[in-house]
Design goal:
The chain has 100 residues and is of the alpha+beta class. The protein is 14% helix and 22% strand. The mean pLDDT is 79.
Length: 100
Amino acid sequence: MLFSPENDEEKAKLTAVWKILVDCVGDSRKLVPVGEYVPQKNDKGAAFYIEGLESESGSFVEVRVDKDEKVYCNICNKLLSLKAGEVIPLCCGKMMEIVE
């Protein structure tokens, strides 16, 4: 499957995921689906767990917002306001999403 980013935000997120999954020196990691993804039911996206990655390991890549944005966690529904240049935080084990 090929993922092609359609805008700068998607390009930054795909780059971040690639850097987390692919390790040229060690072992690459696997994406494991979490829950379900049924676009007809709920088109908010699909959730994945990255095997072998611990949140305390420092392996997460920082993704920053280009402009003032609101981000949310689709697991616990936490909502935050970020200023341009701030890092999109992790919540419930994954990066929060930009509210569109």
